[in-house]
Write a structure and sequence with these properties.
Layout lengths: L2 H14 L6 H11 L1 H6 L16 E5 L3 H13 L4 E5 L4 E3 L3 H6 L9 E3 L9 E3 L3 E5 L4 E4 L3 E4 L2 E4 L3 E3 L17 E2 L12 H19 L6 E6 L10 H13 L14 E7 L8 H15 L2 E5 L1 E7 L4 E15 L4 E14 L2 E3 L4 E3 L1 H4 L29 E3 L12 H19 L12 E8 L2 E8 L2 E2 L13 H17 L7
Parallel strand pairs: 1-2, 1-9, 2-5, 9-20, 11-18, 12-13, 12-18, 13-14
Antiparallel strand pairs: 3-4, 6-7, 7-8, 10-19, 15-16, 16-17, 21-22, 22-23
């Protein structure tokens, strides 16, 4: 096993005794290490902010991390409110764990939990899906239970995958023809085909590289779409970990066969990360460390031919035109071309979109690049037009925050502001845009990229946040999941 992985396990076992963590263990270790601050931002008090004893009907739509956290916090803050959560899923998936599944370090059972364990006592659970939002009449329509009215609404529907936007692609192709996608899951059924298929994809790539040569290498493509996506760092996590696995650093070890593979990373834009400080590390330290990765800037996957293993990308680029003597610069001419690339293996990150029920309702942004996403104020998380509506999690049409760590920070802001509105006051709590991406740069090391609307925002500034470290790997692999189950999901951090 990779020495860094083993050393992080040993260090963690020294703190926990090598046992599976209970809620008490998680609380104890968080206190000993400042783990909450290190992994997901400074702790937020579960009891902070105003409370209300007013009677009101609060409906929460969505049973993922955001919806459950909102239910837990609102149950404590609004003692006399009638709270209903509408969610079809019996099983809750710890979705960040799918990358560790791909890397061979988690199994499906490691990321599954019964949703019933997280629905707070006193909260009514309607196992159904909302098909229509009608904010003008303060009600939602469900698939099986008809209309449900509310005084206040929390939208926590998450994000939808749109594999079919890529011509020739569908979710059914994941796990076939050298195609994988770590994102693929069924939150209703509680399955994580993406994690399982990508773990096999890792193994298949290694087997193929062992049979290849430096003169006749295999070709691996990793993609990132031109839409907002959840966990924006995940495409690169798969890129680096699958490559590092070829160097013998994965859980199964092996000789270094990385010279027998060529990787291409295809994405929109000309940066690996939107925050300059983190981008600098990736460009100057991480990518050169591998040597067999080529960044294909402004290459967006538009079509795939699974049988022939050909991917077609829309490539945007510029060339110099005539020189302008007055401005002392060249005119730049925009070009678009379709580029075919053959591959042996491809990891497809699907385009993503807001769920249809929100996008097709008055609640979504009505125009612009954010069209369809929940139209909320980026600071208060209150709907800009319907003041009794709030949002949490990936559905938000705001500049940052499509990560679980962001949803954790949305929770107390949403709760405080909703309670203020219940009490006839203006919402004053502000979300600062906090986003966290534990970017796995290799087996045993993570760059903990934390940022907000203003830029880099480390929770533990004594350590340079731009440097990958084994300590972040240890906390992500061994501690973050129990913190998620026992603290986050119960609104305790």
């Amino acid at each position: 096993m990779n020495k860094k992985i083993e050393s992080s396990r040993v260090a963690f076992d020294a703190l926990t005794g090598g046992e599976k963590m209970s809620r008490r263990d998680a609380l104890k270790l968080m206190g000993l290490t400042g783990g909450a601050a290190m992994m997901m931002g400074a702790p937020t008090s579960a009891e902070a902010g105003p409370s209300s004893d007013k009677k009101a009907k609060i409906v929460i739509v969505g049973g993922g991390a955001g919806g459950i956290m909102a239910a837990a916090r609102l149950r404590r803050a609004a003692s006399n409110a009638e709270i209903t959560i509408i969610a079809p899923n019996d099983i809750h998936l710890y979705q960040p764990g799918q990358v560790f599944m791909a890397a061979g370090l988690y199994t499906l059972s490691d990321i599954q939990h019964k949703n019933a364990d997280f629905i707070p006592e006193g909260v009514k659970w309607v196992k159904d899906e909302v098909t229509v939002f009608d904010p003008d009449n303060n009600k939602v329509t469900t698939a099986k239970n008809g209309d449900i009215g509310y005084d206040f609404l929390v939208v926590a529907t998450g994000i939808a995958y749109d594999y079919e936007r890529i011509e020739g692609m569908s979710a059914d192709l994941v796990g076939k023809y050298g195609i994988s996608s770590v994102y693929l899951n069924d939150t209703v059924a509680g399955t994580a085909k993406g994690g399982e298929a990508t773990a096999q994809w890792f193994r298949d790539i290694r087997k193929a590289a062992e049979a290849a040569s430096e003169e006749n290498p295999i070709h691996v493509i990793c993609t990132q779409p031109d839409t907002p996506i959840k966990c924006g760092g995940a495409p690169q996590k798969i890129l680096y970990l699958s490559d590092d696995n070829l160097r013998g650093n994965g859980p199964d070890g092996g000789v270094d066969v990385s010279k027998n593979a060529k990787f291409s990373f295809c994405k929109k834009g000309t940066k690996l990360f939107g925050v300059p400080e983190y981008n600098k590390t990736l460009v100057e330290e991480v990518t050169p460390m591998y040597g067999n990765i080529t960044d294909k800037w402004d290459h967006i996957l538009r079509k795939i031919d699974p049988q022939n293993k050909v991917a077609t990308f829309e490539h945007h680029y510029q060339t110099k035109g005539e020189y302008d003597e007055e401005l002392e610069e060249y005119d730049m001419i925009d070009h678009t071309e379709m580029v075919e690339m053959k591959y042996d293996f491809i990891h497809v990150v699907p385009p993503m979109k807001p769920v249809d029920a929100v996008a097709n309702s008055p609640l979504g942004w009505q125009k612009g690049s954010a069209k369809g996403w929940l139209e909320c104020d980026q600071y208060t998380l209150q709907h800009r037009r319907y003041k009794n509506v709030f949002g949490i999690g990936d559905i938000l049409g705001i500049p940052k925050g499509k990560t679980g760590g962001s949803a954790r920070h949305h929770g107390p802001i949403l709760t405080e502001n909703l309670i203020s509105v219940m009490e006839g006051k203006e919402p004053k709590a502000k979300f600062d845009g906090y986003t966290v991406c534990p970017l796995k740069t290799q087996y045993g090391e993570i760059m903990l990229a934390e940022f907000n609307y203003d830029g880099v925002a480390p929770s533990f500034p004594v350590l340079d946040p731009t440097k990958p470290r084994w300590i972040w790997w240890a906390f992500d692999l061994y501690m973050l999941k129990p913190m998620y189950w026992y603290l986050m999901m119960r609104g305790l951090m």
